Amino acid sequence: MMPPLLQQLLNFVSLSTVPHEQLNWLIRHSKIRKFEAGDFVGVQGRKIDGPHFLMKGNILMFIYRGKERQDLLTLETGDIFGYLPYSRSDIAPLNALALDQVEVLSFETLMVREMISLHFELTQSLVHIMNNRVKNYTTLQQQNDKMASLGKLAAGLAHELNNPASALISDASALKAHLRADRLVNNSLTVECWGNVPIAEIDNHLIEIISAYQETELSYKARDQKENSITNWMDSNSIHHTEEMIEIFVDFNIGKDSLDFFKSQLPQKALEAVFERLSHTLITEKIAHNIQVASSRISDLVRSVKIYTHMDRSQNKSYTDVHDGLDNTIRMLGHKIRAGKVHIIRRYGEGIPLVNGYTGELNQVWTNLIDNAIDSILENKQGSLTIVTERERNNIKVSFTDDGPGIAKEIINNVFDPFFTTKPIGTGTGMGLENVRRIILRHGGSVKVNSVPGNTVFTVCIPIDNQQN
Question: What integer is the mean pLDDT of 194-219?
Fold first, then answer.
């Protein structure tokens, strides 16, 4: 009569053709482990063991992405998991949670080498499982990485769009109010006020003022000096003025020369009314300018999103501008960059040719590397990220240098490993740099890292005209 454990293993689809003596050998070097519903069969980040053969029950496999749990798959009776022959990873990438009463036949991991040398059919079956697992994980990684890259940008993009959108709403309301006020101001300018005023000369001077307007940031001291100068002129000429009038005159760089010009062209009884009208005209002009700037900002962001996600092109290879990809990524991460007081230094080489590649995937590379550099810099509260591009023979080299705390020597060789992360639990998936490596290898290139405290450099090399898929 066939032993029960042997019969159970033969019911596993992957083991049905393995010779009985090999399965009996496996049983002799394994032990039965039992779990209740809610028990952890395996924990992400711990040393992996096995292989394990699920003899009874169901196990949920999941990981944490950010603060949320992501359920990946449910193992059922007859499934095999854990360490497999020729596996490169010795750290559990997933959590395994018993959903009901579970029984697992766990093989002694130290005996895997003997299995490989003595039991070909058994080894072959387990390697086949590993190959399928790698394919499934790769597909899942690709999809998750696309979503993760976009997710990194979502919060910042919301801020980037919200600011100009709020400005549009505010300025539109202000414009309506000023247009209503303009009608009242115009009513105060009666024909009697004007007399024989050369209106054409006044209009031409107003056009010159508006045309010369440039939005500039004045220091507090410089602005205060300009405001005091205009205020003193108004007071000395007995002109009623408001704080809003003084501010808009400073914005449009109206100084003593312009004020003297208006005084020379207008009778005293019209001067105050004209300044009030001029103030409202300039405020309306500035609001219109702000609306134009905010609208352009939204348009630029939408265009950046379109380019970044590669929505307007096919998913095949195409010739892409590396600088456009870097600039769009920086623009999309703008809120995080400003909030972290990160100074971006761009040193782009001249005459850099287009690269034959997958634009969307390369954008994921730039996002991961720039986002990681920002996170590193944030540990010091502020700092700089320098991005350099140059051509080396038939390759484009892109380097990202940050002045954060650096990567410790004992872990730097692991940063490209799947699921490896130095970020706190719940904030990092450990997939970003692994996906960077995978994407760059798909392009026939290379990625490496060197780090000391205050100077961490990730260097990406991509062939200009790589033809591999």
Answer: 72
Q: Which two tokens stand for residue 19?
A: 């010779």
Give one word for 326, left, alpha or beta, with left for phi > 0 and alpha for psi -120 to 50: alpha
Instruction: Report whether pLDDT(208) > 70.
Output: yes
Per the listing, tokens 């080396």 go with: 392
Residue of higher predicted confidence among 79 and 160: 79
Q: Among 95-109, 149-163, 339-353, 419-433, where is mean pLDDT lowest?
A: 419-433
**Dist. CA 259–CA 203, nearest whole Å:** 14
CA distance 245 to 264: 20
Cβ proximity of 42 and 97 under 8 Å = no
H-run or E-run covering 319: strand 318-320
Backbone dihedral region for residue 419 (phi beyond 0: left; psi -120 to 50: alpha; all else: beta): left
| Number of Cβ within a 10 Å radius of residue 299 | 11
pLDDT at 386: 96
Q: What are phi and psi of 106, to 5 degrees?
A: -105, 125
134: nearest Cα among 195, 76, 93, 188: 93
pLDDT digits (tens, 9 = 90+) for 244-284: 889 888 888 888 888 888 888 887 777 887 788 788 788 88
The residue ranges of DSSP E strands in 23-108, in sequence order, are 30-35, 40-42, 52-56, 59-65, 68-75, 80-81, 95-98, 102-107
Question: 453 by DSSP, 3-state: which?
Answer: coil
Could you give the C-alpha distances from 29 to 23, 275, 313, in angstroms and in order?
10, 96, 55
Written as one letter, the residue type at 216 is T
Q: Does the pLDDT value for residue 51 go beyond 90?
A: yes
For residue 19, give the 3-state DSSP assignment.
Answer: coil
Report the pLDDT averaged over residues 73-82: 91
Q: How far apart are CA 15 and CA 123, in angstroms?
A: 10
- Type of residue found at 268: Q
End-to-end alpha carbon distance in the chain? 54
SS3 of 292, please?
helix
Spacing of C-alpha 248 from chain mean position = 38
Count of C-beta atoms within a 10 Å radius of residue 43:
12
Question: Strands of 68-75's sheet, edge to edge?
Answer: 40-42, 95-98, 59-65, 68-75
Dist. CA 331–CA 338, nearest whole Å:
11
Q: Which pair of tokens denotes residue 356? A: 């034959």
Q: What is the pTM of this model?
A: 0.49
How many CB atoms are located within 10 Å of the residue 239 CB? Answer: 17
Q: Is 398 helix (H, G, I), strand (E, B) or coil?
A: strand
pLDDT of residue 328: 84
Q: Is 94 helix (H, G, I), strand (E, B) or coil?
A: coil
> What is residue 426's predicted lDDT score, i.e. its pLDDT?
41
